[in-house]
Amino acid sequence: MANPAANAVMGDAAEAVYDGTAVARMTQWTFNPTSGISEWGDSDGGAFTNAKPTRKSGSGSVEGKLDSGSEVYDVFVPGDEPTLVLWINATLYYDLPCAVIGTFSLTLDQDSKEVVGWSSDFTASGVFYYPGEAGATVRTYPT
Length: 143
Description:
Order of helices and strands: EEEEEEEE
Distance between the termini: 39 Å
CATH architecture of the domain at 12-32 and 52-124: Beta Barrel
Strand order of the largest sheet: 2-1-5-6
Number of strands: 8
Helix content: under 10%
Number of helices: 0
CATH class of the domain at 12-32 and 52-124: Mainly Beta
Largest sheet: 4 strands, antiparallel
């Protein structure tokens, strides 16, 4: 049996790009594409349920450490609709031509009185593209 790890996709160069600007000190991102499912039964189903995919959607989050030289709260503003590119490595990325920013939160360390982190949730608006999918805008990895 072949080793499944031999072809594993590694996130060795993960980045998030918001309207063309790389997000400073980003620590992680998530993206959860989903599909609705329509189910029905009929005489052709032989007592089994038929199912078909319906609308696709996707949502996720981006988290990071605050960089006073690049204040992320000036970027992730709830209600904004940026282009969002979520890089897995230097060649693979999710391309969201339009994402709606839903939330933005700062995390404060009570002992040090410092803002130590931030997070933001988003939802894809309209079409989005999987890594390598035809139709995605050709993007250049941020440097």
